[in-house]
Structures
1.
Amino acid sequence: MRLAVITSNPGKVEEYRAALSVLGIEMEHRRFPYMEPQVDDLNEVVRHGLEELRSQGLQDFIIDDSGLFVESLKGFPGVYSAYALKTLGNNGLLRLLDGQEQRRAEFQCCIGCSRDGMPDIVVRGSCQGVILTKEQGEGGFGFDPIFSPDGERSFAQMGTEEKNAMSHRGRAVQALAEALRESMEG
Ligand code: IMP
């Protein structure tokens, strides 16, 4: 089986390859912009994306949508994470939490997979942690320097493998691998 990963972020494709190649699934990176509706649920964004891309003739593909949900900001930036990162950046988000002791946050990732003639698979993964008080580390991307699962080391201070073992996307990819394995065996 061959699946296209539709994303502008090549880092995501490597995570998929690592988890899905053991099932004999080949991954191919494709960029194909699609509209993301402004709704407050990642599943809805993904289900809408699957429909839209199918209506444009795409088959056998994966998309994903992630967000960082900060508890004391009532879940912001959540589904607006890409926009918040572009406009506020990590330092802007840190300023919103200035003086705030309760810094719990959750990363969420929702993956949708469309295969010709098969029901859609939609799975999720999450990772609990905290927003640090300053950026830490040089690796990763996006919010990685300010998010830490244990309150000490940020995602940006971990190697890809270590991050994937506990990250929202790593967990969602594992759930996808499981669902694909079941559907291939069944
Ligand atoms: P996307 O819609 O899945 O691309 O993610 C929304 C925003 O969250 C983007 O600006 C990403 O950079 C950021 N983001 C998604 N996943 C991660 C992650 O694993 N670490 C840090 N930032 C992330």
2.
Amino acid sequence: MPLQPSNLREALRSISDPDSEKDIVTAGMVRDIQIDGDDIALEIALNTSEPSLHQKMREQIEAAIRATAQTSEEIVAAVSVTFTIDTRSANERVHDSGNPLPNVKKIIAVGAGKGGVGKSTIATTLAVGLARQGAKVGLLDGDIYGPSMPTMLGLHREESKAEDGFLLPFEVHGIQAMTIGKLVEPDKALIWRGPRAHSAFNQLATQTKWGELDYLIVDLPPGTGDVPLSLAQLLPLSGAVIVCTPQVVAQDDARRAVRMFQQLGVPILGLVENMSYFVADDGKEYDIFGRGGGEQMASDMNLAYLGGIPIHPDMRISADTGEPLRNWEITDTMSVALDTVCENLAKAVSSTTDERPTLSIN
Ligand code: ADP
């Protein structure tokens, strides 16, 4: 049978995109294949104009095509490859190729420069807080190296269920939630790195049967590792929230997290300063860690400041006992602080547009 574009497309699956580690067909880089007699012309989209990469890719493509021709005993004369330079960020490309979670309106990542700043606490609080304000909310525990949602949401009382090959989210505290911590033993999840982390995260996000959601909040592992990259390549994010504590020493890490999201093309919706200050029983406020550091950093980096959450022992207790809604009963100051952050986030999300400009240079 003479060569068809479909055979050639299959042959090109043997070549991987150095950026996403997907094959170039799955990564959507093969724009066009034309067969004119014995000559073949291809158009490939790349996000770099680096000549050495073009040369390498050209050689791999030609070798794959000639090998397929040889197997089918067909003659190929010239193979010409034209590169289109696609400078869109990972997240812009995902926005353009469609949402794998069509039931979900806005997807928001929650990240932090380092562990222990209260990222999972804030992600949980944002999820239940937005639900308290009337939104339909999902919470995905993407912290696959150290999932804390089983404890923070009290999921040990719940059983994992599946339907039609999909995981059913846990319906708790007015939200839908999913965590790897209920599917594998937590000490096993800790050893996943690279492609295994990528694939575990993808499965968790896309094989959960989310209902109609206004927001899906994704709690990411701390730092700038594999999972944020997987997320930005997989789901069209409306933006990211960065959690930090007020100390100056915590801010270098937070800045790195901000830059990572910006490089992936994910807008920063704003910064939350956790453990911002302590309110004593007499109502007096103490700035233990230097309140205002987060707000200052947000202003220096031209980012929105979503608000500060006080430190309070009962906040730790409600996380340990899996009762996030009890945070609203701690003190009036706490309840106002939590609602303010949620309202500011909802405003920040509604002012983002998911339409991204695209730039293609030949
Ligand atoms: P991360 O996700 O950044 O590693 P966690 O959300 O797991 O951090 O929080 C670390 C610890 O700090 C947890 O025990 C949590 O209950 C506690 N914590 C977080 N925020 C507060 C707060 N505002 N007040 C008191 N304890 C808090």
